[in-house]
Amino acid sequence: MSYLDLAVQVAQEFAQAYGRHPRWIVAAPGRVNVIGEHTDYNDGFVLPMAIERYAVMAADKSADGGSTIQIRDVSGVEPVLIDLSAPIKPGSPKWGNYPRGVIAGCLARGINPGGLDVLLHSTVPLGGGLSSSAALEVCTATLLEAVTGKKLDPVEKALLCQKAEHEFAGVPCGIMDQFISVMGRENHLLLLDCRSCTTQQVPVTDPAVQLLVSNSNVKHELANGEYAKRRAQCEAAAKILGVPSLRDATAEALENARGKMEDVVFRRARHVIGEIERTLHAAEGIRASNWPTVGQLMYASHFSLRDDYEVSCKELDALVEIAGNIGISGGVFGSRMTGGGFGGSTVTLVKRDAAAEIKKQMAADYKKKTGIEAAIFVSRPAGGATVVKVAGKDLIAQAGSHATGRLDP
Ligand code: GAF
């Protein structure tokens, strides 16, 4: 569903929930990372794209004129209440810590929307490794920008959202997910230099290919503790190599220092150094529409994440193996796990005219192998966070073609 169609639906859901029309509607996408995994917190490169799955918020000033932001979710989970007149701290329900952290960051910058009634509807699958939390954070920041009319610089906005995740959700993530949710551009991948925070938009215009996102529908528990452990191992490797971060290390220097570090630390560093190189090569391959090369780099990335970085799991390996068995002759160029790992999704580069058949076969073989239903979908690279409706701008009304699209002012 496009974000405009989803916004139309959320406007109606807001009206049902609160008994009036929303004044603001904003949307922020999830992401799939095409290549460059576990490189962001090593100052390396990543190459994600925003997907056509969104967190959407509709809002109005709070009915009671007070200073509380109330966020309800369409699923009916416990709503979040944030009192702006008191210091904002992490609390319960836990899902509210993402918006709490972002609102705290915005208030610290003088972006104070006052009390709001908000309805959230997200189509980014939870636990799918597709950045549902970054979408929620960036959506919240975009709502506060829309309500106050104060615009954050995009880099500052992404960093504010990352800080919210560190300090309020307790997840020591890198910067990739928030950056792509803010800066995604339709039909482009984002080549992000995680050291300088500079970006290049890499166009994907070849109509002959598509990306399939396959959600394994498993999320293994150890994810969070293991993520922090990987970060620490990378820092240990950089220290032994005498460089500020693994971005500055070479494969040769690592090989020469092999005797000075534990084998596990060596393998973590080998993944990161190789993955940074693969990411830059893949960006060149995409620019040249050299899909067989990009596909090989994706497989190499997966094997390195599986064997050296040890963040894959048997379900993700099964999805990649199934895609590999279909192979180039069946229309698959390459496949890999995407995101933090230990479950979540894979991304597979396929020939467009074979995509429907590949999707069917992958779902059937995965079910046969694991007993689990995968959720597989195609996504174009989507645009980043956007304001759909605000005084003077109503994209739904401008689109005009939706039967239900006209919103009351
Ligand atoms: C998670 C993190 F949030 C990202 O910052 C990144 O490190 C990714 O895992 C692995 O590439 O999505």
Description:
The structure is a single chain. With 409 residues, the chain is an alpha+beta fold. The chain has twelve helices and 13 strands. It has helices spanning 3-18, 97-108, 132-148, 154-168, 176-183, 223-241, 251-256, 263-287, 291-307, 314-326, 355-370, 395-399; strands at residues 24-35, 45-61, 68-73, 80-83, 116-122, 188-193, 198-203, 209-219, 332-338, 343-351, 375-378, 386-390, 393-394. Strand 12 (386-390) and strand 13 (393-394) form a beta hairpin. Bound molecules: 2-deoxy-2-fluoro-alpha-D-galactopyranose (GAF). Residues 33, 37-38, 40-41, 173-174, 176-177, 339-340 line the site of 2-deoxy-2-fluoro-alpha-D-galactopyranose.
Mean pLDDT equals: 95
What's the total number of strands?
A: 13
C-alpha Rg (nearest Å): 21 Å
Number of helices: 12
Biggest pleated-sheet summary: 9 strands, mixed
Write down the overall geometry: globular
Strand content: 15-25%
Bound molecules: 2-deoxy-2-fluoro-alpha-D-galactopyranose
Unreliably modeled segments: 401-409
Helix content: 40-55%
Structural class: alpha+beta
Q: Give the H and E element order.
A: HEEEEHEHHHEEEHHHHHEEHEEEH
Distance between the termini: 24 Å
